[in-house]
Design a protein that fits this description.
This protein is mainly beta. Helix content is 10%, strand content 35%. It is built from five helices and 34 strands. It has helices spanning 2-25, 176-184, 331-340, 398-405, 517-521; strands at residues 29-39, 51-54, 63-66, 70-77, 85-88, 113-119, 125-131, 143-148, 162-171, 197-200, 216-219, 224-231, 238-242, 247-252, 255-262, 265-267, 272-278, 285-292, 305-311, 365-378, 381-386, 389-391, 393-394, 426-428, 431-434, 439-446, 452-456, 461-468, 486-487, 489-492, 496-503, 508-514, 525-530, 578-579. The strands form eight sheets. A six-stranded mixed β-sheet has the order 10-9-12-17-14-15, with no helix packed on it. A six-stranded mixed β-sheet has the order 21-20-26-31-28-29, with no helix packed on it. A five-stranded mixed β-sheet has the order 11-19-18-13-16. β20 and β21 (381-386) form a beta hairpin. The radius of gyration is 23 Å and the shape is globular.
């Protein structure tokens, strides 16, 4: 009874704050209802397999929003297992309750529904959503999410004739349930070392034997189009290009960039870009191509994504060889291009003031994390580790434990090192303190021999540096502190490091993870707990009215004080209910 009364008071406060926000920001409410189910008839490749669809669609429906809108997505789970969706790059300002990952939300059980309600607060840009647990992203369930500028904010390029969403990603022919069993064993025998196809908007490569459907975009000569390109894959970075056409990079993951003209663009797992393409060639058809990085492929390979740019008056199909791209092993090309993606300091974005109003040229760092990713054998099974710790998901979401039990019994705050490597590889619930309203430096060190991508929920970070070998403090002299781009996903090259800065002004429990699905599923993640002791709901939202309970709170939770720093369990006590995904 006491717990119910406490929750009711929080909900009343939340409702009042939500009404105030609607009034102040003039955002509109957007409603979608999703029926999520398995479809075995779509067959995006030449093999029959289960595909996760939304309202019968693969990819799922577009969410087309504007800055400060409120998105309501009522998800009906028709799968035979629990389900969550996360919103890649949406910062969920003051509201990690809607983030849709295992550390923030109880999953939606089979046969049940739950409604996400989140705001695109102070954001613009190109994003996507996907299922975040149980390796389900390997079966689909992803879709595009646009956040458009308000009409009172100038966009730093002329309005294009049209916009196209292009979700490109690698794909397994293996059922996602079979795949997740294989990767958890140490007897995979290389079965899942490489994916089987690269898809464009859920369709196989143009001209590949046995393929019926392929992706095509129709353009009119002389017009300019915005392509919103996302890498929704699970393993492979790719180089994107269009035959005989250049592209102008204008935006990435919510930041307007300095406008550079390219023949091709590297897009790493989890990243999104907007590019402008002008239809300034003869009225015939042209190849749209995505080729893997760090992998040699023939033109007719299933791992070469191929679509068609179709001119409206064309009667001539695509011809000739595929457009040439950079050597897939040319690391210098890729790094130099990454460094050339810089922030447009004079453009407005979600707000009228220029992006460059917020910069890192003079910040004082309050924290530095050095996070080394590698593999380890733990208990005879392969795991991915961060500083020799492989994340093990508790049955109780961290945010729920934080709210109702100060984290006690579920995780121990700051148990694991963030600047050194644990003495022995182990499984654990890795939660680290992020200083509220402090600047944090995150150095991602990749000890793997393949490309990696890191993503931080809740924030955009400034990508300040790339380097080879080990990172040392004196390498800060190589950072770009003038105009580093702000995004939420960055690549980390094999054997190298990437450094980012983030301002931790968004209290909540935030997931920091590898975007490579196998790495994430096998433990390459941690959570950043950014805590503001002020109980004012304007500082952080209370739990939503439809809050799901699970784990140790599946029955009504006992009355507890407001959350504070978690109590440390006795040494040697393992968190309750640990389980791998």
């Amino acid at each position: 009874m006491a717990f119910s009364g406490l929750l009711r008071r929080w909900l009343i406060t939340c409702s009042v704050m939500l009404a105030v926000l609607v009034f102040r920001t003039n955002g509109i409410d957007i409603y979608q209802e999703w029926n999520v189910a398995i479809d075995t008839t779509i067959n995006p490749t030449t093999s029959q397999q289960p595909v996760i669809t939304i309202n019968g669609m693969f990819p799922g429906p577009l969410i087309n929003a504007t800055t400060n809108d409120f998105i309501h997505v009522n998800v009906f789970n028709n799968l035979d297992e629990p389900l969550l969706f996360t919103w890649n790059g949406i910062q969920q300002r003051l509201n990690s309750w809607q983030d849709g990952v295992s550390g923030t939300n109880c999953p939606i059980q089979p046969g049940k529904n739950w409604t996400y309600v989140f705001q695109t607060k102070d954001q613009i840009g190109t994003f996507f959503y996907f299922p975040s647990i149980n390796f389900q992203k390997a079966a689909g369930g992803f879709g595009s999410l646009r956040v458009n500028n308000r009409i009172v904010i100038d966009v730093p390029f002329p309005k294009p004739e049209a916009e196209f969403d292009l979700l490109i990603g690698d794909w397994l022919n293996t059922s996602y349930k079979d795949a997740r069993l294989l990767i958890q064993s140490n007897h995979t025998s290389g079965e899942l070392d490489l994916p089987d196809f690269v898809l464009m908007n859920g369709k196989g490569p143009y001209g590949y034997p046995g393929m019926v459907n392929y992706e095509s975009f129709t353009v009119s000569q002389g017009k300019t189009y915005r392509f919103r390109v996302s890498n929704v894959g699970n393993d492979l970075s790719f180089n994107f290009r269009i035959q005989n056409h250049q592209m102008v990079v204008v935006e990435t993951e919510g930041s307007y960039t300095q406008q550079i003209t390219l023949d091709s663009l590297d897009v790493h797992v989890g990243q999104s870009y907007s590019v402008l393409v002008t239809a300034n060639q003869q009225e015939v058809d042209y190849y749209i191509v995505a080729t893997p990085k760090m992998l040699s492929t023939a033109e007719n390979s299933s791992l070469v994504g191929k679509g068609v740019l179709h001119y409206a008056n064309s009667n001539t199909p695509v011809t000739g060889p595929l457009p040439g791209g950079p050597d897939p092993y040319n690391r210098s090309f890729s790094v130099d291009q990454a460094k050339s993606i810089r922030w447009n300091m004079t453009a407005g974005a979600a707000r009228p003031n220029p992006q460059g109003t917020f910069n890192v040229s003079n910040v004082t760092l309050s924290q530095t994390f050095i996070l080394r990713s590698s593999m380890a054998d733990i208990g005879g099974l392969p795991r991915y580790v961060v500083n020799n710790v492989s994340y093990l998901t508790p049955e109780t979401p961290l945010k729920l434990a934080d709210q109702f039990a100060n984290g006690s019994g579920v995780y121990q705050l700051d148990k694991f090192p963030v600047q050194s490597v644990n003495s022995a590889a182990e499984n654990g619930v890795f939660v680290a303190t992020g200083n509220h309203k402090g600047w944090i430096e995150l150095v991602f060190k990749n000890d793997l021999d393949v490309m990696d991508s890191w993503h931080l929920d809740g924030f955009g970070f400034y990508v300040v540096g790339f380097g080879d070998g080990d990172w040392q403090p004196d390498l800060r002299s190589t950072y770009n502190l003038l105009d580093p781009v702000v995004r939420s996903t960055t690549q980390v090259y094999p054997g190298g490091w990437t450094a980012v800065y983030a301002f931790l002004d968004n209290p909540g429990m935030w997931n920091l993870r590898s975007q490579h699905l196998k790495n994430w599923y096998l433990g390459q993640e941690l959570y950043l707990r950014v805590y503001d002791p002020d109980p004012n709901p304007a500082k952080e939202r209370p739990p939503p009215e439809n809050l799901l309970l699970c784990g140790i709170f599946e029955t009504p939770a006992p009355t507890s004080p407001p959350p504070g720093p978690p109590a440390a369990p006795a040494p040697g006590n393992a968190p309750v209910g640990q389980r791998p995904w």
